């Protein structure tokens, strides 16, 4: 744990101050059960070799390589890299992963399969 | 008969899923709530998460732990929700923090003091994915390895992201304390 984390935990603790309506969790299960569709109608068939996944994954890898190259070249040109630039690079990587690789339904199906 | 077997059997899947909901919904709710802040939003996202899990249940093979699978759905649906909410609302920087503070003060499902409001303001300044990283690590104390599975990002990127989030929050708190 670094100093900043120690400072925040000493200052604020780890518990948040959010609350829920009385009985919310007691009624949640039955509320959800009422909303679940018939599963036989909702069965999703996920092809094991989905070409879209491979294309998306290849595109993402290409983008990451390009991004890394640009970042490396930038680093070579500048002796010091500012925290802001580093953050931008990380943010860009996160966005690429978020948007370019797979959509959410693909990820849920993928994680369910393997 | 194991929970997984019952989830996969159409005759028992609904009852087995009710067990899953009972076991995981509270934990999922708090994870979502820390991301989206407001109870009504968290309730909407949680219901969406559980319905999506149910929809994808026929594909579930049990190799991943069901808790990790649900957590992944919850975090990604929360991120999607934050993005759609940001697209609907205009942002004005410091004005957002003041508005958040006013809303939290008036919110009957928030009973924090000034310090807790300040922390929520600071968290709200983070980009969405950083907020996810921060809440998973700070509140839930998840391992980077598990976070990597959930967010599909390298452990190195997550460590850097958490460090940056810490810097931003600490700086915001010290500036407004």
Give a quick set of tags describing it.
heterodimer; A: mainly alpha; 0% strand; B: 177 residues; mainly alpha; 9 helices
Summarize the structure in words.
The complex is a heterodimer of chains A (114) and B (177). Chain A is mostly helical. Chain A has six helices and no strands. In chain A, helix 4 (51-77) packs antiparallel against helix 5. Residues 41-49 and 96-102 of chain A have low confidence and may be disordered. Chain B is an all-alpha fold. Chain B is 77% helix and 0% strand. Chain B has nine helices and no strands. Chain B has helices at residues 3-8, 13-36, 39-56, 66-88, 94-106, 114-124, 128-138, 144-151, 155-176. In chain B, helix 2 runs antiparallel to helix 3 (39-56) and helix 3 packs across helix 4 (66-88). The radius of gyration of chain B is 18 Å and the shape is globular. At the A-B interface, helix 1, helix 2, helix 3, helix 5 and helix 6 of A face helix 2, helix 3, helix 4, helix 6 and helix 7 of B.
First-to-last CA distance of chain A: 33 Å
Count of distinct strands of chain B: 0
N-C termini distance of chain B:
56 Å
- The count of helical stretches of chain B stands at 9
Shape type of chain A: flat
- Principal-axis shape of chain B equals globular
Instruction: Give helix and strand order of chain B, one letter per element, not per position.
Output: HHHHHHHHH
Mean pLDDT of chain A: 65
Mean pLDDT of chain B comes to 91
β content of chain B, as a range?
Answer: under 5%
Number of strands of chain A: 0
What Rg of chain B do the Cα atoms give? 18 Å
Structure classification of chain B = mainly alpha
Helix content of chain A: over 70%
Describe the biggest sheet of chain B? none
The major pleated sheet of chain A works out as: none
Unreliable segments of 5+ consecutive residues of chain B = none
Provide the structure class of chain A. Answer: mainly alpha
Please compute the radius of gyration of chain A using only Cα atoms.
22 Å
